[in-house]
Amino acid sequence: MEKQPKAAIILGISKRNGLTATGKILDKLSKGYISQILKKGELEHKPGQTLMLLHLPNTALEHVLLVSSGKDEKNSKADYRKMVTSSFRTLQNTSAARIVCFLPELEVEKADDAWKVQQIVDGCQEVYYRFDHFKSEKSPQFILKEVVIHLTEKKSLAACEKALKQAQVIADSVAFTKNIANLPSNICTPSYLAEQAKKMAKEYKNITTHVLNEKDMAKLGMGAFLAVTRGSAEDAKLVCIEYKGTTKKTATVALVGKGITFDTGGISLKPADSMVGMKYDMCGAATVLGTMKAVADLKLPIHLVGILATAENMPSGTACKPEDIVTTMSGQTVEILNTDAEGRLVLCDALTYCERYKPEVVIDIATLTGAVVIALGHHASGLLANNQDLADALLSAGEQIHDRAWQLPLWDDYQDQLRSPFADMTNVGGRPAGTITAACFLSRFAKKFQWAHLDVAGTAAMMGGTNRYATGRPVPLLTQYLINRCEK
Question: What pTM was estimated for this model as a whole?
Answer without folding.
Answer: 0.96
